[in-house]
Design goal:
Layout (H helix, E strand, L loop, with lengths): L1 H13 L3 E10 L5 E11 L5 E2 L1 H9 L4 H19 L6 E4 L10 H11 L7 E6 H6 L2 H13 L3 E7 L6 H6 L4 E4 L11 H16 L3 E4 L5 H9 L4 E2 L10 H11 L19 H8 L5 E6 L4 E7 L10 E3 H10 L3 H10 L2 H9 L4 E10 L2 E13 L6 E14 L1
Parallel strand pairs: 2-4, 4-5, 5-6, 6-7, 7-8, 8-9
Antiparallel strand pairs: 1-2, 1-9, 2-3, 10-11, 10-15, 11-12, 13-14, 14-15
Length: about 400
């Protein structure tokens, strides 16, 4: 039975029924295509596509999966070679069985040399759950051999399992791929957001780059931007596509090549927002964090006393328009003059680092007067202006 199934897989590879699709990954800030993940698809001659869930688990029960993994690795190398000067890094998933493959790094190095692929353009992904199965010393040695030839390693589905943080702390890992389960509540749940904040803080402190999987909504993207996520992939941007379509997308995007950011600068990152939040939420009714150039915001806290309920994350211009719609003409002009994104950027350019104003909003037959202070600051390592806005309710009366 086992031999018959493997024969089918081998035959499917030889007849080109099994193919490599590519899901693009985008820079979370610029929106440019900067990398991709290679994903296997089995297309039957009649057009039927067999889901990977139908055959990958069967192969993963033994080291038979290695055959498919190396096929995907070669396809990725071939694609990188064909892209030439437009090449972007491509990640390939490898099963836990490769950890026991003693000559793994030599085979990988040979493959890269065969297709004239620079090591920094190839990324090895291994799932968090796979790491937990093997002896740590064996995994560590395997990972360092890969890193020594210049290939980046990513821990896939981070947060799905219960891997010890030792795996991340002591291994030469470059990327954490945040499992899509963290985004399933559309970043609207307090506990879910808190968990994500912790994950990103952890990654930044260890100088690890982050990739968020399963990004499907604008709200998720804006939240991830506020968390300083590096790359995003998901249906909001693109589904996995055929090789020929991916090549066209890459050629048209004029994407930069391998990232060379100095991630050491991320130490002490501003993403330790929880500490700030705990210290001041008793004093203020609204706390908002925003990126002015990226036009994104994230509501850190909003008390039950506030009638105007903004989406947890979104576009600054949209929340400005919503607030103006609740104001009188006089108050609307005042809001636009002091608190619009344009006004805040102009204030920063003029050298102002603090904007303070009192404004009225009419909601549900009540007029709420808010005292708002906006603190403006330069992003510590990117071309952006950050804002932290705090508002205190000073009057609440019937309209």
């Amino acid at each position: 039975m086992k031999t018959a199934f493997i024969d089918k897989v081998v035959n499917a590879i030889e007849t080109h029924e099994i193919k490599a699709y590519y899901q693009p990954q985008y820079d979370a800030n610029s929106g440019r295509l900067v990398s991709a993940e290679a994903l296997v698809r089995w297309e039957k001659p009649n057009g039927e596509i067999i889901s990977p869930d139908k055959f990958i688990p069967r192969l993963e029960k033994t080291d038979d999966i290695n055959l498919l993994d190396w096929f995907m690795a070669e396809e990725a190398c071939r694609t990188i070679h064909e892209l030439g000067s437009k090449a972007v890094p491509i990640a390939v998933n490898f099963s836990r069985w490769h950890v026991k493959e003693r000559d793994f790094y030599r085979k990988l190095e040979t493959l890269l040399n065969t297709y004239d692929v620079k090591p920094e353009y190839f990324e090895v992904e291994i799932t968090e759950s796979a790491l937990a199965i093997e002896d740590f010393s064996v995994i560590e040695q395997w990972a360092y051999m890969i890193a020594d030839i210049g290939v980046n390693i990513a821990i896939d589905d981070f947060g799905e399992g219960f891997t010890s943080l030792q795996f991340v702390k002591d291994m030469p890992v470059s990327f954490l791929k945040i499992d899509k389960a963290f985004l399933k509540d559309n970043c609207q749940d307090d506990r879910g957001r808190g968990t994500l904040e912790t994950v990103f803080y952890f990654a930044n402190r260890l100088n690890l780059r982050t990739i968020a999987e399963g990004v499907e909504t604008l709200e998720q993207l804006k939240f991830l931007q506020c968390m300083d996520c590096d790359r995003v992939q998901g249906y909001l941007f693109s589904k996995p596509v055929r090789k020929e379509d991916f090549i066209v997308m890459t050629m048209m995007d004029a994407a930069p090549t391998v990232e060379d950011d100095d991630y050491i600068k991320k130490q002490g990152s501003f993403t330790s927002q929880n500490l700030f939040l705990k210290a001041i939420k008793e004093e203020y009714d609204i706390i908002i964090f925003g990126n002015l150039y990226k036009n994104s915001y994230y509501v850190m806290y909003m008390s039950d006393n506030i009638f105007f309920k903004a989406p947890t994350a979104g576009v600054i211009d949209d929340i400005t328009d919503a607030a103006i719609a609740l104001s009188s003409k006089e108050q609307a002009r005042k809001y636009d003059k002091f608190l619009s994104r344009r006004a805040l950027i102009e204030a920063y350019i003029k050298g102002e680092r603090r904007v303070e104003v009192e404004l009225d909003e009419k909601v549900n037959g009540m007029i709420q007067k808010l005292h708002t202070v906006i603190h403006l600051m330069e992003h510590p390592y990117k071309d952006d202006v950050l804002m932290v806005g705090v508002s205190r309710l000073i009057e609440n009366k019937e309209a």
